[in-house]
Amino acid sequence: MTKQAKLTPQERPVETMLPLTPAVFHILLTLADGEAHGYAMMQEVTRRSGGTVRLGPGTLYGAISRLLQDGIIEESEERPDPEMDDTRRRYYRLTKLGARLLATETERLADLVRAARSTKAVRKLKPA
Amino acid sequence: MYLGNLSIQYAERFYNALLSLYPVQFRIRFAPEMMQLFRDCCHDALEKGQVAVLVVFWLQVLRDFFISLVRERGRELTGPFGSDHPLVAFFDMLLIPTMVTAKLLALGPIFTLLFRGSYGIPADQFIATSGFFSLAIGALAVAASIVMTKLRPTVRLWVKLSA
Hints:
Largest sheet of chain A: 2 strands, antiparallel
Largest sheet of chain B: none
Strand order of the largest sheet of chain A: 1-2
Largest interface: A-B, 18 and 22 residues
Oligomer: heterodimer
Shape of chain B: flat
Order of helices and strands of chain B: HHHHHH
Structural class of chain A: mainly alpha
Order of helices and strands of chain A: HHHEEHH
Helix content of chain B: over 70%
Distance between the termini of chain A: 56 Å
Helix content of chain A: 40-55%
CATH topology of chain A: Arc Repressor Mutant, subunit A
Number of strands of chain B: 0
Shape of chain A: globular
CATH architecture of chain A: Orthogonal Bundle
Distance between the termini of chain B: 59 Å
Number of strands of chain A: 2
């Protein structure tokens, strides 16, 4: 029996990286709109989730560290607006793998919602 | 304004000290950005100028700090070598019981405050009672950690087989 070569995170099929945590999903969703720095990501995640997901510095940069390592996001050299730029800030953007991962996770969640909505019990329920 | 700047200065110093507890590699790469983010959040909280907002802000910061610290330290332990490395197993044996015990020891004084005056615990012997609680909890934590460490290979095998 031959030993299988270990795949790098970039070579792994995106399905093996699912499901994403709410924090990671929101970060990727924010970066899908364009590159952003930590503070912008944090504010956007809070706004988008209606305050239900709040990322502190430790959680945010822990997630960014793992996403960078897996090649899902990358640091951007360019600055979206050089006039507004603060040199201390680093900007991040989605890689192709990251965009594929986000699309796959969105599809998975949509399937899940469709399946849930097709059940009688959920159809009877009214949102709070 | 001056008071605000002064409190931000002290808050930054405190948060900087907390950052030093993260693993070195993580700190080198992300500490300046985390500090900048903390500074921005601190300004936002101070701008609102309400005590309740500041209290909630600090509770969130501390919660975030403890959770991410444990996660990054865990990642550091299993990261470079892989969790099967004997060095990792050795550090597991030492570090996990120590960390768990250190955290649970704080429960001693809390339990004493909760139960003082009841169950025959004299209120005036605070140090002795909290010491007793701390030692008892610490011993339990060490025992539980050792059992968990022993069970780890079995759990890993079970996860591999069921995957």
